Amino acid sequence: MDATTNTGAKAAKLSLGEKSWDLPIHEGTIGPDVVDISKLYGQTGLFTYDPGFTSTASCESKITYIDGDEGVLLYRGYPIEQLAENGDFLETCYLLLYGELPTAAQKAEFDLSVTRHTMVHEQMTRFFQGFRRDAHPMAIMVASVGALSAFYHDSTDISDPTQRLIASIRMIAKMPTLAAMAYKYSIGQPFVYPKNELDYTANFLNMCFAVPCEDYKVNPILAKAMDKIFILHADHEQNASTSTVRLAGSSGANPFACIAAGIACLWGPAHGGANEAALKMLTEIGHVDRIPEYIKRSKDKNDPFRLMGFGHRVYKNYDPRAKIMQQTCHEVLGELGIKDDPLLDVAVELERIALSDDYFIEKKLYPNIDFYSGITLKAMGFPTTMFTVLFALARTVGWIGQWKEMIEDPGQRIGRPRQLYTGAAQRDYIAMSKRK
Ligand code: SDX
Question: Is the pTM of this model over 0.90?
Answer without folding.
Answer: yes
